[in-house]
Each structure stands twice: as structure tokens, then as C-alpha cells.
């Protein structure tokens, strides 16, 4: 019962955070795209039955909500995997998973996204965020599998004088190792794939929290407060937070179309 109450409390906090950040601290330098699927999209991709979909990174912050949302939709036959079963940097893991599950679509949430660590370990950042994505894109193209890959607002930032939102048509310009590695991954997907959804998003937050951390942002702040520990939070970043459950729900609808290409998803909707 306590866990249920705690999750409900966190859910309410996230709703308030989404409202507050969207209304009061929207950053003109961040990604800009309202969560809305236009009515002019192509006919549904899924006509009969359900699409067998392999989810990589099902226990992460975003992956856990994709797992929850897609599992509840009969349009998808979701196959969740975690790193212990499928390490995206190991081609043999990918090949074994394809032989075992024969997916029609792959959703990959795997990434090395600890920005500060990427600066000290650029080789690892490039291996996970670029070379592994290159291998995955090649395999998907060869086997006619739809690829869904996530990128970041960190592909921007070089234009220091910019005072308006970024769109999909703007030229990228990363300023750190993480952004460079993610942009390289984007280019590999575009160059090597035909059937792909490339999703840039920004400031993710959710119930699960990042896989490499214990708990989500709200849980950690509450825990430190209860323990009377000093709370250290960055105060020099302005971004548009994106609730992972909202992202998962809107992604679910987008993937039912044949509108392949690059999308920027951010700004939480009101309910």
C-alpha cells in the first residue's frame, strides 16, 4: 500500500512539474514540438494483428514507460529486453535476439547519456551512441526491420546567440562529446536505414528514473531532504522537461504510421 501511495504521489508531482516547466520556464533554446499527431499522417502501418516489436533497454527510465504503454496496446506484440540479455554494443547479442524473436520493429532506448562522464570517456560514448547504432541500423536495413532510435537536444548548442526554439530543419551543432556521439548516431541511422523513426527529445523525467541511478529525481530529492543532506541541483541549465509516459503514449501513435523520418518530441500536454 505504501508503494502504491508513493507512486501516486510521485505521479502527481510529475504532473505539476510538467505544468510548471512548460508554462513558466520554457526555454526558446530547447527543442520545440507540441505533443500532437497531425490528422494528415499516412494510413496506419498496422492493418491486421499486431506488430512484433523488440524493445531494447526495457528497464530504463524511458524504456519502462514504453514497455507499459505498448504492452497494453493490441497493435503491438512487445518483446522487452534488458542489457543482460541484449547489449547493444555486441552484434552477436542483436543477431541472437533477431533469430529468437524475428521482430518487425526495433525500439532502442539504449544510450550512454551521462554527459559529464562522456567528456572523460569519449571512446565509450562513441562506441555506444554511434558505432553500436551503425551496426543496428545496418542489420535493420538488411532484414527490412523498422528502427526507432532516440536522440537528444544536445545535438544543438553551438549557436550561442540563438533566441528561438530549434526545429527539425535547423542545422545541428553539438558542443560536447555526448552531443557529438549522438549526432553521429543520427547520421548513421539516416545514411544506413530507410524505415526509421528518429526521435529527438529533451529533459526526460519519469517514475522509474534512469537505469544507472537509484530512483527518479523526485525520489532522490525527497530522500536527501528526509536525511537532512545537502541538496545540489544545477542552476545554469534551461530546458523543456519531457515526461516519459507522455512520450511513450505519443510515440505509440506515431509508430502506427508510415511517416518515417526525424521528429522532435517535447512539451508535455495537459490532461
List strands and helices in order, with pairings.
Blueprint: H1 2-24, E1 51-56, H2 61-71, E2 76-81, H3 91-101, E3 105-108, H4 115-120, H5 122-142, E4 146-152, H6 177-192, E5 196-201, E6 204-205, H7 217-226, E7 242-243, H8 244-254, E8 261-264
Structural notes for this entry:
There is one protein chain. The protein has 8 helices and 8 strands. The strands form 2 sheets. The chain has a 6-stranded parallel sheet with strand order 2-1-3-4-5-8, with helices on both faces. It has a two-stranded parallel sheet with strand order 6-7. Helix 2 packs across helix 8 (244-254) and helix 5 packs parallel to helix 6 (177-192). It is globular and about 50 Å long. With 271 residues, it is of the alpha/beta class.
Write a concise keyword list for the protein shown above.
disordered N terminus, 271 residues, Rossmann fold, two-stranded parallel ribbon, globular, alpha/beta
Q: Termini separation (Å)?
A: 26 Å
Rg from alpha-carbon coordinates: 18 Å
Number of folding domains? 1
Please summarize the sheet with the most strands.
6 strands, parallel
Write down the overall geometry: globular
CATH superfamily: NAD(P)-binding Rossmann-like Domain
What strand order characterises the main sheet? 2-1-3-4-5-8
How helical, in percent, are the residues? 40-55%
The overall strand count is: 8
> What is the SS-derived class?
alpha/beta
Question: How large is the share of residues in beta strands?
Answer: 5-15%
Topology order in helix (H) and strand (E) letters: HEHEHEHHEHEEHEHE
**Tally of contiguous helical segments:** 8
CATH architecture type:
3-Layer(aba) Sandwich
Q: CATH topology, which one?
A: Rossmann fold
User: Overall pLDDT, averaged?
Assistant: 81
| Spans of at least 5 consecutive residues with low confidence | 1-30, 32-44
What is the CATH top level name? Alpha Beta
